[in-house]
Amino acid sequence: MELISRRHFLQSSGVVSAGCAAGFISPVFAARTALRLGGPIFLKSDDPLEVAKEHRRLGYSAAYVPPVELKDADKINAIGKAFAKENVIIAEVGAWVNMLESDAEKRKKNMDYVTERLALAEEIGAINCVNIGGSYNTKQWDGPDARNMTAEYFDATVENCRKLIDAVKPKRTKFSLEMMGWSLPDGPDSYLKFIKAIDRQEFGAHIDIANILNSPGRFFNNKALIDDTFKKLGRWITSCHAKDVVGKDVHLAETMPGKGGMDYTAYLRNVTSLSREIPLMLEHLKTAGEYDEAREFVISKATQLEIKMA
Predict the structure, then answer these.
(1) If we measure between CA atoms, which residue out of 62, 173, 68 comes closest to residue 125?
(2) What share of the chain is helix, strand, coil (3-state, %, to 5)?
(3) Strands 174-178 and 237-242
(4) Among 186, 199, 219, 244, which is least packed by CB within 10 angstroms?
């Protein structure tokens, strides 16, 4: 991840001074880096350069890994060159399988898959490979289960993360766990415990604030949770997801950025207050139009806060 340059620092300092004078930006949350926004694209093309250019056309400077297999070295190389040319970083290689699958054979198959995805992230130069810890739920791979909040879950997940990292020994990428509302890590404190227990510099922190707004207390005080999360995990953060949460009947539901109660001023200020550019990735929307709306909201909010887009 690229450190902030002297020129960028001076430019940012000028923006901060002007913003503070106008009353927009608190010195505590002065933007140190540009915002690298990313999300899925709907272009049907297998040409890496066309795909990279489409990200740029949409205002994205970060991307999910395009479809490619670890064995396809030529395509991996082509993707890396094309995205670098367009200044689009590959933020995430997802590995969405249950590492705590109850069936031993299936669990091994899942772990082999995550190992391969971490190796792909390393080869292609992605910021991180991300998965959830898993679930003991026997019907839904990421479903709720009381055992997901236990020491048994914690210890098994620590062991899994160590095995993955030790098998691949990545130098350019990190392995990270996505925060979840029904399993660990479910907030900054439990994430810190994982970081300490896993004890590998190749392990990073993936931030998804929407996932951990899992109670009225957290929902109505989400600014404090956002600030606390970035304060405690800032040095380990690899990438972030951009979603929102809305209260509905007797539960909390996920929605697109700007449609819920998340404090996006606090979120964007924290993301860009770090010493390196951290990707913020839109996800879970259904159509190109929905992504357009969500993207426009985030860019508009960043503009309002005088945060530069990468």
Answers:
(1) 173
(2) 45, 15, 35
(3) unpaired
(4) 199
